[in-house]
Amino acid sequence: MSTAAAAVEMHASRWGDPARAGALPESARGLVEAVFGIDERPAATDVTVPAPALAAEVLDALRAAVGADHVLLDDATRRLRTRGKSTPDLLRQRAGDLSDAPDVVVRPADHDQVAAVLAVAVEHRVAVVPFGGGTSVTGGLAARREGYAGVVSLDLVRMKRLLAVDHTSMTATLEPGLRGPEAEALLAAEGLVLGHYPQSFEHATIGGFAATRSSGQSSAGYGRFDALVVGLRVATPRGELRLGSAPASAAGPDLRQLLLGSEGAFGVITEVTVRVRRLPAEKVYEGWAWPSFAEGAAAMRTLAQAGLLPTVLRLSDEHETAINLARPDAIGAEGASGCLMVVGHEGEPDPVAARRAAVASVLTGLGGTPLGEEPGRAWAHGRFDAPYLRDAMLDVGVLVETLETATFWSRVPQLYDAVRSALVEALGEPVLVLCHISHVYETGCSLYFTVAASGGDDALGRWQRAKAAASDAIAATGATITHHHAVGTDHKPWLPAEVGELGVSVLRAVKAELDPTGVLNPGVLV
């Protein structure tokens, strides 16, 4: 039907739009200097990308599949498709390590061209890494090279169409290369909204949302991305899968669930059909104060179990509230006391007013203090800015990274304490460990931790040891190793603890059936 305009390319060695990269804000700089000190860490410059390793016959076959203009070997393009945007990814880039650069970037235009590229990869045993927005933070874009003739970055940037809209059923079919804002703009022209806004929203893609089981900041109202998906089209080395022929089915296990969260290891998602809603006429965000994290979490649980969730529901703990992390442009400035909750409502005016009043009645009755709309507006204004702040802190020698998990309500205090303790012990003082809840369910919630510590001379090693300690703590409490960041390579060692060795064997069997030569994102997930 319609195609999105080209989006801004992300920075090669930082997060996001290069024009928005900047120095640490003065308010944050004062906090950093007081807690950690300033240790300027310039990145390596003039680092060369390894020469392409693919044979001429493979390149010719790829050109025949997608057209010569869409098979790219230049250093700049390959650098932009090297790894994702986790702190370890950036630390390796800053140290001059580009060893994971693909040999070639290939840009198919449609499902058939994706299938043709996979056929070439199978014939010549070439690893293929599907690439959407490049926002992976768990090592999901660093394929294993051993045993392969080379690595292709399968860049889906040309697949940016809104293919179909069903206004009666309220569904839309999108191509995987559409970034979040592009998809929303195309849907808005139809009077519709998807409502999926993860922190990576400005750069992550529809295909990436599906392949990682993404969860957005408005998940309380719109749902996780996997809950929005009603249909998939997938290219695999064995052929095509079309899944989702009805709103619900009893025709055996739901095979869509095998592809959602599969991170390109089972197939390449080429079309996603999603549930959509009418554009909201009204959006209102407000702040609430709670004496403690436990009391705020109990209020969230009450709303979820009463079926009274707003569109946005987020709670910062005492530490995150104190330094204002819910407002990245004011970090280090005086924050609210206790714990800050952000509550947002979207929809038609009358239902919004009714739900807002009902939610406020519950929160007030449980001991919450309304703070008005200013804290909510401030959060909404800066909710995609935190990764830029992370990069600015890396510039002055402060290691900053995030990790997330989820558990049942009864286990939240144990999980919270275990992860905090593991991080503090692994990193030593001074360290900041901050946490918020941003995704809630009747039975439990997610915990999202932000960690800051001095990087020192081995920032990468320090974080790897801390992340392993936190992951061990998560597994020991029976929580999930990832709520919405996916497995990648970073979380793979802890997957057996969650699904069991038999469960991992089932996933390996699926991969063997769909990708018998193992060319799809080798080393990722399983």
TrEMBL record:
PROSITE patterns: FAD_PCMH. Gene3D superfamilies: 3.30.300.330, 3.30.465.10, 3.30.70.3450, Vanillyl-alcohol Oxidase, Chain A, domain 4. The keyword Cytoplasm does not apply. The keyword Flavoprotein applies. Keywords: FAD, Flavoprotein. Coiled coil: none annotated. Residues 98-279 form the FAD-binding PCMH-type domain. PANTHER family: ALKYLDIHYDROXYACETONEPHOSPHATE SYNTHASE, PEROXISOMAL. Belongs to the FAD-binding oxidoreductase/transferase type 4 family. This is FAD-binding oxidoreductase. It comes from Nocardioides oceani.
